[in-house]
Fold this protein.
Amino acid sequence: MRQPRLSSVVERRLLMNYRVAPDAAQRLLPAPLRPQLVHGHAVAGLCLLRLGSVRPTWTPKPLGLQSENAAHRIAVEWDGPDGLETGVYIPRRDTASRINAWAGGRLFPGEHGRADFEVHETPGQMRVALATRDGDTRVDVTVELSGELRGSALFADLAEASRFFRSGAKGFSPTSSGRHLEGMELQTDAWHMEAGRIRSAESSFFDDPERFPPGSATLDCALVMRDIPVSWQPLPAMASERGAQLAS
């Protein structure tokens, strides 16, 4: 079945970014993917995403759905037919939506687990917490909006960070079989990022010493996107030589 192109509004996209030792990141990646390095670091993180008005592009906006979602991501590169390509590998996707959990991997690319979310937002601050239904993953982060990006060892300023993440609009995630990767590409003409100041952050994924030995994953910065109209374009599946390790 042909998967439809989707339209939606990114009501809130909170990116919590870690700088990671390249060898630690590589262990989590299936071939042909390899870590995309910035100043010698791999870049990984959490995407805490609330989508509104989600629907096939031909469907009226009022019929769209809203959902809270989370994706664990690693910035990657690979050799495509026309040269070097960049994007993200997503070893784990979770959602509060029963519909997303059922439809992911069926009606649109990307299999989703279920999670319960707790969200508190004001114009200047946001807290997002989640616990997955399988008990494997917990997240609790609080971020304040800031006029500029400060303290990042990955990016000199907000403009540099924004360019990096815009170039990683293609996201691939493993299927249950582990034999191939399903992909979606985020597309928008209204790209805009804001800087965040991290007040607190806990992530059982990045704090796990089996995945990331002590010192190999360090919280670097937070970035925020709000109220951005986007579309999601399914991508051709990518063959995978082995399933991702420690993905669940």
